[in-house]
Amino acid sequence: MNIYAYEIEKLKRGIAAALPQRMVSGSLIDHAEIRRDELLKGVVTVMLERIKGDGDWSATLQILITGQVEIELPANKDTMGALVEAAELALYSELRAYLRNTGGLPNIEVQDVEFSAHSKAPFGWFLLRAQYGPINEACTDWDFGNLPAPPNMYPPHVLITPFDGADIKIDAEPHETDAVHQKWLRDAQTAEQPDASLTLELKP
Questions:
Q1: In this model, does residue 156 exceed pLDDT 70?
Q2: Counting C-beta atoms within 10 Å of the first and last residue's C-beta, which end of the chain has fewer, N or C?
Q3: Whose CA is closest to 24, among 63, 64, 65, 61?
């Protein structure tokens, strides 16, 4: 899994844990296609809209979070719009409370929220836009298992090996030529010898 999908999954799991009575999804589905019992509970969907690069190893995710609800038909249909709005606000307020304190996730800055304005009663919805990040694309806090780096961090032709130490060759004046230095880097045998050699080993 890459860092972007990893962060989105963390956010979805966090919302699901904070709002156990609600449904959390990764795919936006029209109200008509969602089970009614799920809509009555309230459905939250998390989506990635764009990625903004903040540097070589940092990015901010532009995310969209939707809330979808349905209400029981009231005896007085004149109250339907107000009841839909109340259901939307109830779901939004729970989500907003979690986004203020996500417990270890990157910063989430809510930019704006659009509501249905009673347009689909007895269904309701809201659309929240937020900035998520910055995230560390270097994944320095990841456990890669047996891999030296997470998938897709480097091009496939790049050989990634752990940095276990260094072989240091010191060339005092008068210096050897660049061609000799290149041979030393390749650990090739040369008639010329460095003035001193050091081996540095890093212990885990």
A1: no
A2: C
A3: 65
Query: Are the C-beta atoms of 78 and 47 separated by less than 8 Å?
Result: no
Report CA-CA distances (Å) from 21 to 15, 84, 119: 11, 18, 25
The answer to whether 82 and 106 are in contact (CB under 8 A) is: no
Which strand ranges, in their side-by-side order, compose the sheet holding 123-136?
23-25, 43-55, 58-70, 123-136, 108-115
Is residue 41 within 8 Å of 10, Cβ to Cβ? no
Q: Are β-strands 108-115 and 58-70 bridged in parallel, bridged antiparallel, or unpaired? A: unpaired
Predicted confidence (pLDDT) per residue in 84-116, tens digit: 999 999 999 999 999 999 988 999 999 999 999
Q: What percent of the chain has pLDDT over 70?
A: 88
> What are φ and ψ of residue 193, in 5° steps?
-125, 145
pTM of the predicted model over 0.70 = yes
Distance between CA 12 and CA 66 in Å, rounded? 12
